[in-house]
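Chapter summary example: a protein plus uridine-diphosphate-N-acetylglucosamine.
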Amino acid sequence: MDQYIIKGGNPLVGEVVIGGAKNAALGILAGAVMADDPVLIENLPDVDDVNVLLDAIAGIGAIVDRVDRHTVRINGGTIKSVYVDYEYIKKIRGSYYLLGSLLGKYKEAQVALPGGCNIGSRPIDQHKKGFEALGAKVTIEQGGIINATAKALKGNHIYLDVVSVGATINIMLAAALAEGTTIIENSAKEPHIVDVANFLNSMGANIKGAGTDVIRVKGVEKFHGSTYSIIPDQIEAGTFMVAAAATRGDVLIKNVIPKHLDAISAKLVEIGCDIEEYDDSVRVVANKRLSHTNVKTLPYPGFPTDMQPQMSTLLALSNGTSVVTESIFENRFKYVAELARMGADIKVEGNMAVINGVEGFMGAAISAPDLRAGAALVIAGLVAEGFTILDQIAYIERGYEAFEEKLTALGASMKKIDVNDEREIKKFKLQVS
Ligand code: UD1
């Protein structure tokens, strides 16, 4: 098990290149198995969640050929099983996309119940409702295996009771190879929904309206091979934007779609950052103490819940009182207890955090409670006075590629070390002192 040791105090300065979107990649990889011809996926992030899904895809018999670190060729023509109970699949959220894609292609799928970060109850009733509307029978078997079968899938009109990224993608996947037309109303509009739809269309699907709240999927008989490049990761980009702001740095964040970052940019400008937008990059400059604001997480184009811990950490260092309302997941403030150990003044009541900005943080021994909170705590460590040791960084590696390398290249003082490797800790402290 690894941990990060961080010496805070360095402003982040320079350029960073953002990788492919993890959450788009999960939907796209699941979709890739629906063709019987080779599908080449480019700009794939090399993160644990993606690699686990690739192992699971290989486990059911598809050919998975890692062309290079960021490119994979998948051939779903050799799939032998629709049973996905690979040991690790339970730990990732994206595993449930195999339910939609295998059900769509083979009218049958058995997939272990999805895990993912423990940030709330995360039900899958809307996925189930969607599959059932298409004609599938969905049951949860012993051992937490979801079983979905259908004689045939027939297009239908589906109204989602909650705006769900996962349910929207899953229903799109299954409906793409169903008979007739499916209309998904109140669908999620996140950039990765559009990316998965574009990818499926590149294989021959007929999906219109992705990115709006009504998606129309005209089922086709089969898919053909394709070459597709995944969009940049909105949340990785946002995390570096906030890290630049928190450390009072100056960072050019490259390979992004600035439009996808609008909600984040708007909040950063509101609290006093300078943001310059270019075609495919944004520059974030903060050379003073920032100010307070209120943030409420909402489905896209609202402020993303996956940026809430990072933004709250920044506000905890800003002047005045901010209120952050988490309206998507009920258990997403677990990192607040860790920030308190570093000197933050935050009170959580229900889904609301009242943040009284402090002048600075002190280094501490802390632990990452989940993926995005882990990234937020790294940001806290980068700002804190003295040394921070952050445990449970496996969470961070699920969704950020080469996080410490990218931060170090921007001037951060941090290192990944073996848990309790006292010698390494001493060596790092000597090096940076
Ligand atoms: C995805 C992202 C996650 C992000 C979230 C919201 C992946 C792998 N994960 O998660 O990083 O934080 O979108 O942008 O892409 N809900 C139900 N019933 C359902 C499904 C969802 O009630 O069947 C609720 C959830 O509890 C939550 C809300 O809907 O309150 C949104 O969840 P959803 O958009 O589905 O999140 P995920 O797909 O799990």
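Key point: Residues 12 and 407 are 8 Å apart (CA to CA).
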